[in-house]
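Data deposition worksheet. Section B asks for the primary sequence of the deposited chain exactly as it was used as input, without tags or linkers unless they were present during the calculation. Section C holds the resulting structure in C-alpha cell form. Section D is free text for depositor observations; keep each observation to a single sentence. Incomplete worksheets are returned to the depositor.
Section A, Depositor: J.P.
Section B:
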Amino acid sequence: MVPWPIAADGWDESQPLSVGQADLELGGIVLANEVRTMVALGRQADAIRTTSAYSELVALDWPS
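Section C:
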C-alpha cells in the first residue's frame, strides 16, 4: 500500500502494525493481510473506492 497522490508526513506511521509494516526503501506499507486491511481502512473512511487499473486510479477526483 503506497501513499497516493502524495506522501504526507507520518504516512509510514499512519496504520496500526496489524495492517502491515512500513518499508521505507519501497516507499509503502507491506500488508500483512489485504482483506483485513480493507476492512480496517473501511471503518475509517466515508467512502471506499478500489481499483486495480492504474488509469482509473489517476482519474479519481483527489482532494487537494
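Section D:
The chain has one domain: 11-59.
The helical segments are 34-44, 54-59.
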